[in-house]
């Protein structure tokens, strides 16, 4: 019997745990799951005989280490900053490790030691990062295998609300950590390269320079630039590509409206506001509008919007930003925290709502003197509020990878990413059974 | 004979050193001046018999301490981050200390120890901070002395180019550290209070929300908000004032044009640009404009400016931002560093140029049921490129304060600011002899 230790039983672990339990009997696995919240673990295990519920503080090395010693494989769903500590434990106990988070330089530096210990440390095997790497590398390797030269790669991903649950003027609901959505794009300019020209977009322009994208049957989307597109040249082995761009997808209208919050200064997380005991959405907004002796906040906000953005007014009104009811539970918040509070009240998934994960890659390449284009897209809908598309697309790649490590399909040791055919091919194949599949279109340009 | 030790002989020390030497014989002072650049010290001393030129690294405690032990008073013109170390040395050697820089919480915490040592540690005794405190407190104390209640205090200061040397389309030249001008307003929103309403202005709006100000004989100015106006309520003892605002002055048109650089992202100092070996002003600008296959940078920039700002185009052209000549001497610069390089080439003081320091306070107060207003302004022109207005207004308050400490006029020990009548009255009186004087206007409103 093989033992899998799952660290963390939050929302993002639902589909991962279900897959592991569903495949535990045939594979002779015991799934040991730890979270500080015992009821969360028990709920996820649902009485399955191969599941063992544990409750301790997995962030404490001394509490974590005995369990890691027992395991053949650890899947860490902890906050990303703890992965390095867990990796050290896994090296010392010769235990394989999977994380869905971005690989850090410090994690990368453990490669030799992981190899010496004979273990796999697989990183970035969720959806973004994860599924994006796998689905892109499949096409990149196919083009390169025919002798083609890739000249442009643009890639977009977005966690959105499913069309059937899309019933608000923002065409958006939080399907992931709201704080990350409020802070999206902060901390330095977005950088990419287009036709050999390096381009930088500052935060205050990010939601104003957009790509338009349509997907048959799902309508229109817009993409705004992710912070760092340049590093993907190395990740994908495309060092000399003239154009590389990665972006995040939203429905049309969202970004231009979000830009209003940025321009007002309401997404800032760098300082705490003063005198906020009685703060209401209205007084919060008013703090970012010029003083006027008598003009109502609505009128000042309209002046701020300008004529050309006046069609956005109703989106903001719907959010309740003109209401004068106190925002409770906030203690000297940053503007970003106050804004998050307002948004979460209106933009959360409701009972019965489904989410939607959209990914699209756009390639251009030269082959035998001709220019070609490939687009590849995936749209996946969630099952319900627990087994969301976000949970499925994050958890299933990690779960399938776990199976491959334990059954010996995945042999190479060391600190790695899912960018090699022996990793991504079986995972992409199995994901199709879960309706996570890509549709390719080709044309000559 | 009393000994004064001056740490640092840069541009900001010129007028300070001249005053100390000019008054050294009558007061029986020896002025010991240290800078790493010996020629700079010798140039400032100009062979004066009471000046002693020293060259060592004043940032090194072991090199500095023997000189501090010899001195009765230290004037530190070092970068602000070193003042605390110097203050520790001054406490241990019981030596008085003057710095023109903002008082830090750590510096404030030395108050008891400074008192125990019987020394004065006078901070913020330059122009801004310094002259602003003294000239404002004189009026505040006068109003309060009559029983008036101050309801509004707005204060502006700007280092500008004198009208006779104002010959470029930006109506601006660097009279102080250009880096600080490029980074002005970064690092958190500007905050102030108006009629009891807390107001925040994010960086991307800072140069767009302006106050208009006119001064007889000197024309029009605009003010943009300084980062923190709120803390001045405590400094000036105006804790419950409904309106307090501090701003920086520029000539009309400067701010709206500067805002274009901010909106483009060219003032960011948080990341290094990639592939900048052959960077020119033109390619630097192009990195912040959208990609286009064939449209020239000038046309893309015009689209960015929009019709309503098209009158600014010539300012940018005059700066040379469309030129394709490499920017030399920059190694992977931040955008702010690259922009500074372009600006310094065009906006520096030239031989014979004079600078100008402008300060204006606007008060409103209630007295005996009536509302009154007082404005108080000061315009000071520099003598030349060495004895600039900036150097005079920074150095002379510190120098006069040095005299007051050494001749026993200023008696109170401890860590302090120039906000008490016994400090500011003699200093403001003597500054009038140097043409640094305020003109007050009063009216009933």
Question: What is the element layout, followed by pairings?
Answer:
The structure is a homodimer of 445-residue chains.
Chain A: E1 2-7, H1 14-22, H2 24-27, E2 29-34, H3 38-45, E3 51-54, H4 61-70, E4 73-76, H5 83-93, E5 96-98, H6 105-108, H7 111-117, E6 120-122, H8 131-145, E7 149-161, H9 178-183, E8 190-194, E9 197-201, H10 203-206, E10 211-215, E11 219-225, H11 232-235, E12 243-250, H12 254-264, H13 281-286, H14 297-305, H15 313-319, H16 335-347, E13 355-367, E14 370-381, H17 389-406, E15 414-416, H18 421-432, E16 439-444
Question: What descriptive keywords fit this protein?
Answer:
homodimer; Rossmann fold; 3 domains; 7-stranded parallel sheet; 7-stranded mixed sheet; 36% helix
> Domains counted in the coordinates of chain A: how many?
3
CATH structural fold name of the largest domain in chain A: Rossmann fold
Low-pLDDT regions of chain A: none
Nearest-integer average pLDDT of chain A: 96
Total strand segments of chain A: 16
What does this structure look like?
The structure is a homodimer of 445-residue chains. Chain A has three domains: 2-127 and 388-436, Rossmann fold, CATH 3.40.50; 131-257 and 351-385 and 440-444, Dihydrodipicolinate Reductase, domain 2; 272-333, no CATH class. In chain A, helix 3 (38-45) links the parallel strand 2 (29-34) and strand 3 (51-54). In chain A, the strands form three sheets. In chain A, strands 3-2-1-4-5-6-15 form a seven-stranded parallel beta sheet, sandwiched between helices. With 445 residues, chain A is α/β, with parallel strands linked by helices. The first copy, chain A, has helices spanning 14-22, 24-27, 38-45, 61-70, 83-93, 105-108, 111-117, 131-145, 178-183, 203-206, 232-235, 254-264, 281-286, 297-305, 313-319, 335-347, 389-406, 421-432; strands at residues 2-7, 29-34, 51-54, 73-76, 96-98, 120-122, 149-161, 190-194, 197-201, 211-215, 219-225, 243-250, 355-367, 370-381, 414-416, 439-444. The mean pLDDT of chain A is 96. Helix content of chain A is 36%, strand content 23%. In chain A, 45% of the residues are buried. Chain A binds chain B through residues 187-189, 191, 194-195, 197-202, 204-205, 209, 230, 262-265, 268, 270-271, 273-275, 286-288, 290-291, 293, 335, and chain B through 187-189, 191, 194-195, 197-205, 209, 230, 262-265, 268, 270-271, 273-275, 286-288, 290-291, 293, 335.
